[in-house]
């Protein structure tokens, strides 16, 4: 592909050929522990990221690297409902230092007609009231890295207003769905750090004092890209560990995946409840 525009055009053509007539209004980027919702897609169409020139190659355990298209069921055996696009994995900035790894994928979604992007992740908790296994609704974020996926963008559109990065209306809809389903969903601020190393206890204390309730290595670049593309954003974190110094546990990616797996059923139930309520 000669440039990103050509890559997006080719990716759209492949998606339309694989799922003709399907018009997803909502897309979900599935982080570690959130993939269970994929089992509720009726008659799924799967495309490997390798088949889509605008999509990234992935290099992290727990991320499948496929795009699943179809209609979501609110429960096993239920009738198919809303058309969705599920991105089963993301490119992280810590893999190359480049925060723009998801640019082509998100712009393809926007060109496809998606209006709402749901971003999910696994994160560390900075709040004892949100222990491992909790789910958190992202109300705002801290771009601790102070990097952007918009470097090199021309014109005034690159000056994106982030005053309402996470839509208040979408958050209210998600909270109502969680309450109706009996799922606790406290709100909090998510701090983005580059990684791949975990934070030090001193860094965790700093983030707490800055007002963060969770910390992770993703999501913020995609939020910036989505807002630049005009998409509404809903952010959800699965808290898989306490931040360094807040417990005696030793942090590792394997530990993250283990805790995420244990919380996966609740995460899938939350997404199944939230998706029908999202107004686009």
Task: Describe the 3D structure.
- The chain is α/β, with parallel strands linked by helices.
- Helix 3 packs across helix 6.
- The model has no long low-confidence stretch (mean pLDDT about 95).
- Strand 6, helix 3 and strand 7 form a beta-alpha-beta unit.
- It has one domain: Nucleoside phosphorylase domain (Rossmann fold, 3-Layer(aba) Sandwich).
- The chain is built from 6 helices and 9 strands.
- Helix content is about 30%, strand content about 25%.
- The chain is globular, with a radius of gyration of 18 Å.
Overview features:
globular, 28% helix, 5-stranded mixed beta barrel, alpha/beta, 9 strands, 280 residues, Rossmann fold
Short description:
By secondary structure, this protein is α/β, with parallel strands linked by helices.
Domain count: 1
The Rg value, from CA coordinates, equals 18 Å
Taking strands numbered 1, 2, ... along the chain, how are they ordered across the largest sheet? Answer: 5-8-7-6-9
Largest sheet: 5 strands, mixed, barrel
- Give the total of beta strands: 9
Q: Quickly count the helices.
A: 6
Mean pLDDT: 93
CATH topology: Rossmann fold
N-to-C order of helices and strands: HEEEEHEEHEHEHEH
User: In terms of per-residue confidence, which ranges show pLDDT below 50 for 5 or more consecutive residues?
Assistant: none
Amino- and carboxy-terminal Cα gap: 32 Å
Global structural class? alpha/beta
Top CATH class: Alpha Beta
The coarse overall form would be globular
Please, what is the CATH homologous superfamily?
Nucleoside phosphorylase domain
CATH architecture: 3-Layer(aba) Sandwich
Give the oligomeric state of the chains in this entry, treating copies of one chain as homo and distinct chains as hetero: single chain
């Amino acid at each position: 592909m000669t440039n990103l525009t050509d890559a997006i055009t080719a990716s759209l053509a492949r998606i339309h050929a694989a799922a003709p007539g399907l018009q997803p209004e909502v897309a979900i980027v599935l982080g570690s522990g959130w993939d269970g919702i994929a089992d509720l897609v009726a008659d799924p169409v799967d495309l490997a990221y390798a088949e889509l020139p605008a999509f990234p190659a992935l290099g992290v355990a727990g991320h499948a690297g496929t795009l699943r298209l179809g209609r979501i069921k609110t429960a096993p055996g239920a009738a198919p409902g809303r058309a969705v696009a599920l991105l089963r994995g993301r490119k992280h900035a810590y893999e190359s230092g480049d925060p723009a790894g998801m640019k082509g994928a998100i712009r393809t979604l926007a060109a496809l007609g998606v209006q709402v992007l749901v971003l999910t992740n696994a994160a560390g908790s900075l709040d004892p009231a949100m222990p491992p296994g909790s789910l958190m609704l992202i109300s705002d974020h801290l771009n601790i890295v102070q990097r952007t996926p918009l470097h090199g963008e021309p014109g005034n559109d690159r000056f994106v207003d982030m005053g309402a990065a996470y839509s208040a209306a979408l958050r209210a809809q998600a909270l109502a769905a969680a309450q109706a389903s009996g799922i606790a969903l406290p709100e909090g601020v998510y701090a983005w750090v580059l990684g791949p190393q975990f934070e030090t206890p001193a860094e965790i204390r700093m983030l707490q004092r800055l007002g963060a309730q969770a910390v992770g290595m993703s999501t913020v670049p995609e939020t910036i890209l989505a807002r630049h593309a005009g998409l509404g954003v809903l952010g959800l974190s699965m808290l898989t560990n306490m931040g360094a110094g807040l417990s005696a546990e030793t942090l590792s990616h394997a530990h993250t995946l283990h805790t995420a797996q244990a919380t996966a059923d609740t995460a899938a139930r939350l997404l199944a409840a939230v998706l029908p309520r999202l107004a686009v």
